[in-house]
Amino acid sequence: MKEHDWSWTYEGYEPAQERLREALCTLGNGYFATRGAAPECAADSVHYPGTYAAGCYNRLTSEVAGRRVENEDMVNLPNWLPLRLRTASGTWLTPDTHKPLDHRQNLDLRAGVLERTLRYEAEEGRCLAVRQVRLVHMADPHLAALRTELTAQGWSGEVEIETALDGTVANTGVERYRSLASRHLADVRTGTAAPDTVWLECRTSASDIRIGLAARTAADVPARTVDAPEDGRAAQLLRLSLTDGRTVTVDKTVALHTSHDAAIKDPAHAALDRVGRAPDFATLLDSHRTAWQQLWNNAELDVPDSAGPVLRLHLFHLLQTLSPHTAELDVGVPARGLHGEAYRGHVFWDELFVLPYLNLHFPEVSRALLTYRHRRLEQACRAALDAGHAGAMYPWQSGSDGREETQQLHLNPRSGRWLPDHSRLQHHVGSAIAYNVWQYCEASGDTEFLHTKGVEMLVQIARFWAGLAAYDGTLGRYRIRGVMGPDEYHDAYPGAERPGLDDNAYTNVTAAWVLARTLDVLYDLPDLPRRDLCERTGLDAAELDGWQEVSRKLYVPFHAGVISQFEGYHALEELDWDGYRARYGDIRRLDRILEAEGDSVNRYQASKQADVLMLGYLFSPAELGGLFRRLGHEVDDTLWRRTVDHYLSRTSHGSTLSSLVHGWVLARARRADAWTFVHEALAGDIADLQGGTTGEGIHLGAMAGTLDLVQRCLTGLETRGGALRLDPVPLPELSEYGFAIRYRGHRGVRLRLTADRLTMTVPPSDQDPIDVALADRTVSLAPGESCALTLPDR
């Protein structure tokens, strides 16, 4: 693989790498995305063409370990890619049946285009050169196109091309799910609308989402077209003649609609109308490039050396999953993008790592993603009530509606056993939502959202935490019991009959933060909206006084001069880390290794990913110190560094988010060691460090988090108190770079960081000046002004 500033290129055909390349070469526009699979190949052990529309889910029931288990999945939609070819006397050409003489894929990030070139040696030694250019249109989110150029080399003759829409697909992209029900599409119908156009319509079996596709195929030479439908497939055969050395072009234009779309009546009719009105490929490509250029203008990023291309690839996939089109949809942040079927396309807490970047570039998208959460607030309140709690209990995994989508069982592929899944006890997802509300409103200045939807979510999440906290007279503190923290390895105490842990430090500290921030927002609300909110939600002074007390008296355990991950953590056994590494090599998924041995990770001081250290990711040192002081503890730099060291040596990094968080924390706690983890975070997906997981879908939170690391962590950028606060800590490996942000109505605010200087420029506009705080200085920058600030020595 060769790295260039604006492209990613793969040379040669390597079946073992195909799933990874398909995921990393996915094209999308925020409405739908299609994996970078070869159009001539169907789903098999090597290839997996998948197309996914944001928010398109379906629910199926499976028999698992003697139990009926219901799962909701993001649906693999009908495959629009199929286009295969053969010579007059030959068989269909694929890279698995006819080894290509050469093969090259190039992902053009600037243009949002995937180009593929290869040469086949067909029967009778005939060499056929193929070039394909693919796009999923960024300006018109319902269109995609595939251009195929064919050149006969050293011969002339006839070729046959089959183009199709395939509705026989299933969700089989994740091996460990394949024993589960996977057929989500029902009532597939196909037809021909014109000599060059076919259509397909179907629906999802349970959610009853209707899906319509139409494909128009045209060649630039005379071609004989024959309809060749099969069950579940709309197909046509094109026969045309090739002349030695002359290139023939075949363009396939596709439209996709679902019944979730606004302002349409019938998806199939809408798709046919759209594809019939679509311009030619060259015009589509031109408008597509323009739309991408506008996105890049709003997400300007200039990072030199090896990190630059990787960050640009991460940004590319973020923008394909969550584009301005997303602002029109009722969708959340799918943890694995629109790139595959891992995690069933569910929404977890990954927006915690995604929104801080979007807030400063595409705040309208952030607002839409938070609105997705607000629409499900009522369901979260019902879930809390059903569980005997107050307020809103948001689910750990979300999908189409607000119910809990976390599966009840999960498979350990190492042992082959299905095990109980208790991760629905990760109630800290509610704190993540509250944190995102606050961060979005601070960055955007959107007080209208904060004073309406935002404060409604904050109130119900705060109410949940205050109700869940129980007073312990012995400690004189409030305790939160029976939860799981971000670590995810520990879901119970050793030998316990019930799942859950007590007083997870991350959970309790963030709950205290939610309560404190919610009180701040309520006190700042104008009288009339505050009165209306209190009447609507039943808030009174006694309840607010209770929140105040809980926010100051939540229990945080400590041991050996460090913050304990949870109460009782210190009593767990130490793991023989060196021994396990010697036996297994890669121990990222230590939980699976131990379970296969008949042991449990619950017995050990071993974490999958950052838990306590997540506090250093969310909060600046000053904020974190203030939070602990509010709780009656003094956490100074020395104690925090001891805490960092303690958990760093006891973490297996079984999540792509772990290296990101550790790199972020170490950049401020132990800068010399930060780059190891930052580099791993950058390489997480492109090198598939988690061992085959990227082929099932990219890790969107980790990708966005690396972008935010250069945007906020290394610059120390905070949007707090109506000012931009900066506290740079440039790493030697990332000591000079620049980017632009959008801050409270100012577009294109440019920042450039070097080893000893931070330069900031505010573009001309009619907006108010920006207050910029650096160390003990504050300057006011009016539109059209620049400043250069010398960094303090560290």
What descriptors fit this protein?
794 residues, alpha+beta, ten-stranded antiparallel sheet, five-stranded antiparallel sheet, 20 helices, 34 strands, 31% helix
Describe it for me?
With 794 residues, this protein is an alpha+beta fold. Helix content is 31%, strand content 25%. The protein has 20 helices and 34 strands. The strands form 9 sheets. Strands 1-2-9-10-11-12-19-16-15-14 form a 10-stranded antiparallel sheet. A 5-stranded antiparallel sheet has the order 20-29-30-31-34, covered by helices on one side. It has a 4-stranded antiparallel sheet with strand order 8-13-18-17, with no helix packed on it. A hairpin with a 2-residue loop joins strand 14 and strand 15 (197-204). Helix 5 (351-359) runs antiparallel to helix 6 (363-375) and helix 6 (363-375) runs antiparallel to helix 8 (429-444). The chain is globular and about 85 Å long. The two termini are 38 Å apart.
Order of strands, main sheet, comes to 1-2-9-10-11-12-19-16-15-14
For the sheet with most strands, the description reads: 10 strands, antiparallel
Main structural class: alpha+beta
Shape annotation: globular
How many helical stretches? 20
Oligomer: single chain
Q: Please, what is the average pLDDT?
A: 95
The total of beta strands comes to 34
Strand composition percent: 25-35%
The separation of the N and C termini measures 38 Å
- The residue fraction in helices comes out at 25-40%
Segments where pLDDT lies below 50 for 5+ residues? Answer: none
Radius of gyration: 27 Å
